[in-house]
């Protein structure tokens, strides 16, 4: 059972020293637009994929040119960029790794995320001073393992997702010289530390080489061998049971406990997620962490933050293993996906003369629809009674990819997202 949140109830933890342990807020950036979105809404750092070696499909990887541009923009805003090469390399991957590592180093990334000892060796040969972060795929679950990797020159370890916060705190105390990072939000894999073979078995698409087809999200029936036409259906679901599909992790209500553990960085999952997802999650956790650091014992988790997280795609929320005594996760028998809002568009710029915001449409928009502009510190309602095309002509609707103008009284930051409520049944 999930414990009463110290973030929403009376805190029992001493948070007088929290300001000294302010964690880095680390966001996923599946492409250059998402990198910019994360920075706009308050990320301290982002992590990106490296072509062919990052445990995600090509749709969530940055070219070296885009990565170099993103690093420059991040550093200009005092943010960091970490590049993931966290695949378990086979012999055929080593040549690609040797080819790409020099160019990757040249982009100026702040650290590389790895899981394979072989790749650690290759990186050390090419860039002995490069900071290395050990992926959660490496299954680091105890302080002696942390010390081992520390002796190998690793600067940070992303701890196993299967640890609870008490265990995390013990490791932080035991090895104070090591930066430690944990996941606090996003989709959870049904396999231990993400080492899943179900996709490879069913589709010949290896999760551990970045090509997971997510069969754990499919609908399964459980049958007994002598009764193939009489499947077992759990009582709580009249249709199917999603035996392997976890709810999404969410520790928003437990930030005092997370920060009190002493971790250096808190990480959001989702390189395959949309810019809208990145915007909402970044802004929500940024506001919550900043409030906690400032308010300490007076901090209370704002219920509106949780309402924001319900407006993005999710499968229901769980605290995962954070407070579990046993390694048991929660599934969502009747939930495939929940989402109340969707992106309406993205800000391309502001016309100071006409007082118009320039928008690229992401989902079909009609005049009169209620649209919200997500600014880093507030949400502003946008009137859509007047929509203009690039030639200044009025239009009554716009489709994805179209550019429109809407009257608005003050400048808005480029890259800010707009959203609208989803139609019932969509």
Order of helices and strands: EHEHEHEHEHEHEHEEEHEHHEEEEEEEEE
Structural class computed from helices and strand pairing: alpha/beta
Q: Helix content range of the residues, please?
A: 25-40%
Computed CA radius of gyration, to the nearest angstrom: 23 Å
Instruction: Walk across the major sheet and give the strand order.
Output: 1-2-3-4-5-6-7-11
Mean pLDDT: 87
Contiguous low-pLDDT stretches (5 residues minimum) are: 6-14, 235-240
Largest sheet, in brief, is: 8 strands, parallel, barrel
Question: What percentage of the residues does DSSP assign to strands (E)?
Answer: 15-25%
| Global shape | globular
How many β-strand stretches?
20
Structural notes for this entry:
The structure is a single chain. With 426 residues, the chain is α/β, with parallel strands linked by helices. The chain has helices at residues 32-40, 64-76, 91-106, 117-126, 143-151, 165-174, 198-203, 255-260, 275-295, 303-309, and strands at residues 24-28, 45-49, 80-85, 111-114, 132-134, 156-158, 179-186, 222-224, 227-232, 248-250, 265-268, 317-318, 341-351, 356-361, 365-366, 371-374, 379-382, 397-398, 403-407, 417-421. The strands form four sheets. The chain has an eight-stranded parallel beta barrel with strand order 1-2-3-4-5-6-7-11, surrounded by five helices. It is globular.
Topology:
Blueprint: E1 24-28, H1 32-40, E2 45-49, H2 64-76, E3 80-85, H3 91-106, E4 111-114, H4 117-126, E5 132-134, H5 143-151, E6 156-158, H6 165-174, E7 179-186, H7 198-203, E8 222-224, E9 227-232, E10 248-250, H8 255-260, E11 265-268, H9 275-295, H10 303-309, E12 317-318, E13 341-351, E14 356-361, E15 365-366, E16 371-374, E17 379-382, E18 397-398, E19 403-407, E20 417-421
Parallel strand pairs: 1-2, 1-11, 2-3, 3-4, 4-5, 5-6, 6-7, 7-11, 10-12
Antiparallel strand pairs: 7-10, 8-9, 13-14, 13-20, 14-19, 15-18, 16-17, 16-20
């Amino acid at each position: 059972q999930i414990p009463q949140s110290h973030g929403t109830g009376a805190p029992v933890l001493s948070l007088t020293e929290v300001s000294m342990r302010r964690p880095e807020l680390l966001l996923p950036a599946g492409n250059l637009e998402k990198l910019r979105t994360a920075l706009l809404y308050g990320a301290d750092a982002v992590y990106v994929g490296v072509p062919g070696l990052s445990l995600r499909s090509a749709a969530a990887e940055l070219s070296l040119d885009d990565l170099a541009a993103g690093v420059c923009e991040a550093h200009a805003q005092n943010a960091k960029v970490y590049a993931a090469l966290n695949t378990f390399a086979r012999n055929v991957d080593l040549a690609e790794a040797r080819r790409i590592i020099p160019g990757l180093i040249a982009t100026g990334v702040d650290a590389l995320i790895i899981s394979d000892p072989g790749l650690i060796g290759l990186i050390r040969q090419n860039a002995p001073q490069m900071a290395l972060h050990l992926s959660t795929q490496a299954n680091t679950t105890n302080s002696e393992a942390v010390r081992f990797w520390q002796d190998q020159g690793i600067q940070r370890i992303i701890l196993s997702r299967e640890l609870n916060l008490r265990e995390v705190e013990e490791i932080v105390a035991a090895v104070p010289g090591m930066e430690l990072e944990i996941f606090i939000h996003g989709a959870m894999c049904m396999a231990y530390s993400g080492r899943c073979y179900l996709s490879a078995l069913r589709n010949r698409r290896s999760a551990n080489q970045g090509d997971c087809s997510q069969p754990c999200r499919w609908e399964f029936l459980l049958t007994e061998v002598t009764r193939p036409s009489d499947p077992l259906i759990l009582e709580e679901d009249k249709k199917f049971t999603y035996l392997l599909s976890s709810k999404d992790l969410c520790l928003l209500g437990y930030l005092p406990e997370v920060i009190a553990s002493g971790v250096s960085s808190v990480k959001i999952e989702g390189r395959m997620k949309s810019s809208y997802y990145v915007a909402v999650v970044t802004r929500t956790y940024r506001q919550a962490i900043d409030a906690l650091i400032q308010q300490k014992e007076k901090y209370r988790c704002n219920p509106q933050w949780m309402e924001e997280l319900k407006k993005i795609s999710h499968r229901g929320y769980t605290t995962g293993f954070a407070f579990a005594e046993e390694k048991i996760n929660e599934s969502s028998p009747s939930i495939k996906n929940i989402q109340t809002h969707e992106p309406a568009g993205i800000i391309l710029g502001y016309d100071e003369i006409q007082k118009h915001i320039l928008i690229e449409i992401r989902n079909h928009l009609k005049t009169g629809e209620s649209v919200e502009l997500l600014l880093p510190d507030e949400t502003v309602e946008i009137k859509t009674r007047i929509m203009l095309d690039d030639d200044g002509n009025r239009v009554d609707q716009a489709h994805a990819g179209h550019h429109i103008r809407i009257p608005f009284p003050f400048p808005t930051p480029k890259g800010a997202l707009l959203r609208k409520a989803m139609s019932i049944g969509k």
